[in-house]
TrEMBL record:
Its cofactor is Mn(2+). This is TfdD. The keyword Isomerase applies. PANTHER family: D-GALACTONATE DEHYDRATASE-RELATED (PTHR48080), ENOLASE SUPERFAMILY MEMBER DDB_G0284701 (PTHR48080:SF3). It holds the Pfam family MR_MLE_C. NCBIfam families: mucon_cyclo (TIGR02534). One of its GO terms (molecular function) is muconate cycloisomerase activity. SMART domains: MR_MLE. It comes from Achromobacter pulmonis. GO terms for biological process: amino acid catabolic process. Belongs to the mandelate racemase/muconate lactonizing enzyme family. Keywords: Aromatic hydrocarbons catabolism, Isomerase, Manganese, Metal-binding.
Length: 381
């Protein structure tokens, strides 16, 4: 006899959390000193309470079009009402219900998807990783982001991370000023880091800052200096340009802004527009759809790394649950949101040790929210 588990969704509530960063975070087209997150609370028909979190970089629409305010509005007005009364255990149906009422809105849907996963995990008494085959790793190497735009500052920062055995893989943010001076800055930084630790890996992220001629002029210099990977040097729509750069260089070109859900993954892999795939729960539309994209990458022979959107320990736990179950994670992960935020939203902060980040052990996402801090940092409506 087949018995279907039925547990319906009674309510989904949201609130905006505003947190300061420890230092300014620079992108090619934006700088921010705060991070806004959408905190989720879900209640089921049997009284189970689950929690989740989602957000975009800075909480503003500069990166992906969504802002924390649009996320909350879309969830409150469209996504949550579509799911009330639905069976929590019909996950593909829940995704379909969200798609029917809202196109795209990947970050908003991801926030809902995270709290759905936490609810199921709490009911079954299992970690989310169990839904995707179980863990193959209990911790994973984690990179550090160098964001100051100043070579001396970034070199000092990298030296501290290496000495403390926190990180020896680094991502340098580029595209803040003219290409020539930016290249000189990064070359200087890369050489200094490799002098500190020859085992260190350095990548760069241009966040769509350059055009194709600029890339052909300066990316070879970055390759020669020892940069291991170039992330999104061209605007997101230039898939052919990304593919052409990949053929010119001996290091991977990674699409990020060009690649959202698992359908985009198929398109980018087929076009040869990316040599690495950064799995991101928020950008990918949630845990389940990010897992689908990772499976497409595995089938295409594309190595992956685990990305972030500056989440607290709650959102970071969601990503860790997924990344811990992926068969391979060749380029490690960048889950350092909890280290960049001035405060955290979980009762137990994400653990970092010996260049790695540790997967939490509890059920669901594996963490519990600190409700006092949630209340303290909640935006007044």
């Amino acid at each position: 006899m087949n018995a279907q588990i039925i547990e319906t969704i009674e309510s989904i509530e949201t609130r905006i959390i505003d947190l300061p960063l420890k230092k300014v975070h620079n992108h090619s087209n934006s700088s921010h000193a705060h991070q806004s997150l959408l905190f989720m609370t879900l209640r089921t028909s049997s009284g189970v309470v689950a929690y989740g979190e989602g957000g975009t970089p800075a909480g503003t629409p500069f990166w992906g079009g969504e802002s924390i305010e649009t996320m909350k509005e879309v969830v409150d007005r469209y996504l949550a009402p579509a799911l009330i009364g639905a069976n929590l255990f019909g996950h593909e149906t829940l995704l379909h219900l969200m798609d029917r009422v809202a196109s795209a809105n990947f970050f908003a849907k991801a926030a809902v998807d995270v709290v759905l996963h936490d609810a199921v995990g709490r009911i079954l008494g299992l970690p989310v990783s169990a839904f995707y085959g179980g863990r193959v790793r209990e911790s994973m190497p984690v990179l550090w982001v160098l964001v100051s735009g100043n070579a001396s500052v970034d070199i000092e920062d990298a030296e501290r991370q290496i000495e403390r055995r926190r990180h020896r893989t680094f991502k340098i943010k580029m595209g803040l000023s003219d290409a020539r001076s930016e290249t000189e800055r990064v070359v200087q930084t890369v050489k200094a880091i490799h002098a500190m630790d020859p085992r260190a890996t350095v990548t760069v992220d241009l966040n769509q800052a350059w055009d194709f001629p600029t890339c052909t002029q300066y990316l070879p210099r970055l390759q020669d200096a020892g940069v291991a990977m170039i992330e999104q040097p061209l605007p997101r729509w230039q898939l052919q340009g990304l593919a052409n750069l990949s053929m010119r260089l001996n290091i991977p070109i990674a699409a990020d802004e060009s690649l959202w859900d698992f359908r985009d993954a198929f398109t980018c892999f087929k076009a040869g527009a990316t040599g690495i795939y950064g799995v991101k729960v928020g950008k990918g539309g949630g845990i389940r759809r990010a897992y689908k994209a990772a499976a497409i990458a595995e089938a295409a022979g594309i190595p992956i790394y685990g990305g972030m959107a500056l989440e607290s320990s709650i959102g970071t736990a969601a990503a860790l649950q997924l990344f811990s179950a992926l068969p391979t994670l060749a380029w490690d992960c960048e889950l350092v949101g909890p280290l960049l935020l001035a405060d955290d939203l979980a009762t137990t902060a994400t653990q970092y040790r010996e260049y790695e980040v540790v997967v939490p052990q509890g059920v669901g996402l594996g963490v519990e929210p600190d409700l006092d801090k949630i209340n303290f940092y909640s935006r007044k409506q």
